[in-house]
Design a protein that fits this description.
Number of strands of chain B: 2
Shape of chain B: globular
Radius of gyration of chain B: 19 Å
Structural class of chain B: mainly alpha
CATH class of chain A: Mainly Alpha
Strand order of the largest sheet of chain B: 1-2
Radius of gyration of chain A: 20 Å
Structural class of chain A: mainly alpha
Number of helices of chain B: 12
Order of helices and strands of chain B: HHHHEHEHHHHHHH
Helix content of chain B: over 70%
Helix content of chain A: over 70%
CATH architecture of chain B: Orthogonal Bundle
Number of strands of chain A: 0
Number of domains of chain B: 1
Number of domains of chain A: 1
CATH class of chain B: Mainly Alpha
CATH topology of chain B: ABC transporter involved in vitamin B12 uptake, BtuC
Oligomer: heterodimer
Strand content of chain B: under 5%
Largest sheet of chain A: none
Chain lengths: 343, 307
């Protein structure tokens, strides 16, 4: 087998191992907490893959924001930035997209939908930019600052949907539903899967190529691996590379928020499924590889879609799925360390 | 007569108590050179364990159970970071995710998916005679639950321990220079593991306090970032017990401001802005306090190795 074929099969093999390990962890947790594993797993499989509608409208619809935020986390981590703030950047993107839509919603035009999406991208980048600035200027640990910004974003959204952006009857804590012209078109007729899925696939491919083949991608990886070596090489402006990586990461998460609003919810709410947190598991389990992110995003989309069905049909709390994610992260770290010590 | 200011100061100290407990524990952990982002998880585990045990056995047992739960979940963190030398930040994040999932699962299997109006016995405030009559600060400092009074003993004790005992010196040596500590006959891994576990116990107590001295009920994700705020408090407190206590009080005050404004009738300010205030304050404080030279030199010395 030549090198390029191996490069294609290795990630698939890894994904297969990951799926198998996920199943083992899932069964172990189900048994340990006293649930009937076969009933729960059947409900889960039905919810995630049971029908064409379940695959497209439950699993893949969830995989889209997970892939975009997973890419956001992967790019930041590759640059050595521990951006735990994809959740806040997603909310910032969703809020800005909704605000733009309600500001210009009365003047429908073909340019408006791209503008709404761009507003989300810019807002996510700005939200990440705060953490980036705090890091460069004051040396604030980005782990802490991004988590704090997640909470601030959640409260800002909570205020927006009860204040400036609240729907006209002023009864529900949510924004006015988006006009039809501002909703992303469906990708497959008769399903909820929207063209946002194409953004995720395209951007994953672009990020993969960019990281591998361009000078910018090389600089980002160099900074992530060893910032002081990158700095002493004299050819890499570490501060600038870090800032761009942080902004790109925020932009991707902001796009995820805008895509959720225009493609799935059609309005802004003050609760969130927590895609930005699951994104950390998505990115780490893909070993920070953008193409791999697509695979793990579908895996976690299936877990979450299946988890909801499992809660509904088998009475197993969906919180169990969050535990699976955490256990998988710990297994990856442990596996890495084990192999690392063998080197 | 009790004025709005009295109420505010009392609420500030009450809100500061769990933050101070968690931050003092993290202070010890970080002095040993480890940063535990999983603190948040230990707090929420402690809160749930305290809820379950206090509801069936009693309040004192609830505190013990909370501390034990904080210890157990932090044991995983200690094994990964101290013995496997895994990345502290990633491991801590995973521990927090694990705890949020675990507590959600256990809570629902104990109390059903609806989470029916759960009320737990709580410890009331104990007024200390005479001292609680001091104007302005009397009620704030001396009409509090017993767990707050425990802090009045713990803070000076910890300061003395850091600076004046052999084991305190060993801890600081490990945090500043593990190699030098080894040369001095200290076993860094054992010291670090104990420091991390102590932080877990304190975080568990902080979670117990949230339930047993404050809300009287458990809500999923009720830690709401307090573990991360505690880490900011340690930075602001310059890694010293008295500094940490003072910083915790500042954050308690920021959280209590909403009560003051409510009692003054300033209802036109959206309450979400008050809820966001402690988090914004954390950012401002970190910007002011970070980057100076008080941090233990070997803190979080373990680079990201994934990818």
């Amino acid at each position: 087998m030549n090198a390029s074929a191996r490069r294609l099969t290795a990630p698939l093999l890894r994904l297969a191992v990951l799926v198998a390990v996920t199943l083992v962890v899932l069964v172990a947790l189900l048994v340990a907490s006293g649930f009937d594993a076969s009933t729960a797993l059947q409900a889960m499989a039905r919810g995630a893959f049971g029908s064409w509608y379940a695959i497209t409208s439950a699993t893949l619809v969830r995989a889209v924001p997970l892939a975009l935020t997973g890419l956001a986390v992967a790019i930041a981590f590759r640059a050595g930035l521990l951006n735990i703030g994809a959740e806040g950047q997603l909310l910032a993107g969703a809020a800005a997209a909704t605000a733009t839509a309600s500001l210009f919603g009365a003047t429908p035009s073909a340019l408006l939908l791209p503008l709404v999406l761009l507003a989300g991208v810019a807002s996510g980048a700005c939200w990440a930019g705060i953490a980036s600035w705090l890091r460069q200027r004051f040396g604030v640990l980005e782990v802490i600052s991004t988590i704090m910004l997640n909470f601030v974003a959640l409260y800002v959204v909570g205020w927006l949907v009860r204040g400036p952006l609240q729907e006209p009857s002023k009864f529900y804590p949510q924004s006015m539903p988006l006009a039809k012209t501002l909703q992303l078109p469906a990708l497959l007729e008769g399903t909820r899967l929207h063209v946002g899925a194409l953004f995720a696939v395209t951007l994953a491919g672009a990020a993969w190529w960019w990281l591998r083949e361009t000078a910018g991608g090389f600089r980002l990886r160099a900074v992530g691996m060893n910032p002081s070596a990158a700095a002493t090489s004299g050819r890499i402006d570490v501060a600038r590379v870090s800032m761009y990586a942080f902004l790109a990461s925020g932009a991707l998460a902001g796009l995820a928020g805008a895509v959720e609003v225009t493609g799935v919810t059609y309005a802004l709410y003050d609760h969130s499924p927590g895609y930005g947190y699951t994104a950390i598991a998505v990115a780490l389990l893909a070993r920070l590889n953008p193409i791999g992110v697509l695979g793990t995003a579908v895996l976690f989309g299936a877990l979450q879609a299946g988890g909801n069905a499992m809660q509904r049909d088998a009475g197993v709390p969906v919180a169990l799925v969050n535990m699976v994610e955490a256990v998988l992260i710990l297994l990856v770290i442990a596996g890495d360390r084990w192999r690392g010590s063998a080197r | 007569m009790i004025t709005p200011l009295d109420d505010f100061l009392e609420a500030a100290v009450r809100t500061a108590t769990p933050l101070a407990l968690a931050a003092l524990g993290e202070c010890v952990t970080e002095r040993g050179g480890v940063i535990n982002i999983g603190l948040e998880g230990a707090i929420v585990c402690g809160a749930l364990a305290a809820t379950i045990v206090a509801g069936t056995v009693g309040v004192a047992a609830g505190f013990a159970a909370g501390a034990a739960a904080g210890l157990l979940i932090t044991l995983i963190f200690a094994i990964f970071t101290v013995y496997l030398r895994a990345d502290q930040i990633i491991t801590g994040t995973a521990i927090t995710l694990l705890s949020l999932g675990l507590t959600g699962l256990v809570y629902k299997s104990f109390y059903g998916t609806t989470g029916v109006g759960l009320t737990i016995p709580t410890i009331g405030a104990v007024e200390i005679p005479l001292l609680s009559r001091i104007p302005v600060i009397g009620r704030a400092l001396f009409a509090q639950p017993v767990i707050t009074y425990a802090l009045y003993v713990l803070v000076p004790l910890m300061a003395w321990w850091f600076m004046r005992t052999h084991s305190g010196l060993a801890l600081r040596a490990v945090g500043e220079s593990p190699d030098a500590a080894v040369a001095a006959g200290v076993r860094p891994r054992r010291v670090q593991a104990l420091a991390v576990l102590f932080g877990g116990v304190m975080a568990g107590l902080a979670g117990s306090t949230l339930v047993l001295a404050q809300s009287g009920t458990f809500v999923e994700n009720m830690s709401a970032g307090k573990g991360f705020i505690a880490i900011a408090i340690v930075v602001l407190g310059r890694w010293t017990p008295f500094g940490v206590a003072g910083a915790a009080l500042l954050f308690g005050g920021a959280s209590a401001l909403q009560y003051l404004f409510q009692s003054l009738g300033w209802n036109e300010v959206p309450y979400q802005l008050f809820l966001a205030l402690p988090y914004v304050l954390t950012l401002v404080v970190l910007a002011r306090a970070s980057g100076r030279a008080a941090a233990p030199a070997a803190l979080a010395r373990r680079k990201l190795t994934l990818g």
